[in-house]
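Q: What would this chain look like folded?
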Amino acid sequence: MRNPLRNAILALAFLAAPAVHAAGGGLPGEWQKWQPGNEINNIASLQRGAGHFMGYCAGCHSLKYVRYSRLAADLKIPEAQLESTLLPPGAKKGDYVITALAAADGEAWFGKTPPDLSLITRAKGSDHVYRFLKTFYVDDKTVNGTNNLALPGTAMPHVLSALQGAQALKTVKKDGHEHFEGFEQLEPGQLTAAQYDEFVRDTVNFLEYAGEPAKAKRMSLGVWVILFLLMFTAFAYLLKKEYWRDVK
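A: My prediction, written as C-alpha cells:
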C-alpha cells in the first residue's frame, strides 16, 4: 500500500537536493559557513563599500535600480564628494548606476554579459556573494587562470587579485571525497588578510543596501511597530478585564 505523505516528502527532497548542492557550490568545507556579518545601519561601511563598487565593479556591472542621488542621500555623501569620486564623466546625479560596458563587449570578452548586481544579494544571499569574493584560487585549467569555490567555472576573472594576492587551493581526502582544507598564499596582495576581509564585507554590505535601499528604515520602523502592538495588547487586555469585571 502506498503512503502519499511519504511519497510527497521523498519527491520534495529529490527536487530540493540539486538546489542545495548548487547553492553550496565547490568542495565541502569550512568556507561554506563563512558569513559577512553585515551592518546595514553602518553608514561608514556603506560609504566605503560604495567606493569599492565604483572603483572595482562598476566597470562591468550596473545597479540599474539605484540612482546616484538616492545613494548619496541615504549614505550621507556630500554633493561635492559625489561628483568628484562616484559620478562617472558625463553622468548626472539623477541617473541610474549603469556601467559603460556594452553587453556585446562583455559577452565577447567573458563569454557572457556581466550581470546587473542590483538584486544579487536578494537573489543569491549576502553569504554567497561574500564567499564568492573570498574564494578565488589559481587554476591553470581555466581560460582566465582562476577558479572559484562558490561558483565553479565562473567566467569572471579575479578582479581583486591585486588586493588579495594569488592563492592556491588546498584539499584533503575524507571518506573518498575531496574536502576544502584551506588556501596557500602564493603571492601577497596589497592588503593583509584582515584588510581584504574588511574590504569584502564593506562591498557586500553596500550590495545588500543596493538590493533594498529602504531596509535600514524598515528595520528601524519595525521596532516601533512591535512596541505599539505590545502596548495596544496591554490596553486591550486591561479593557477586557474592565468589561468583564462584573460578569460572573
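The radius of gyration is 24 Å.
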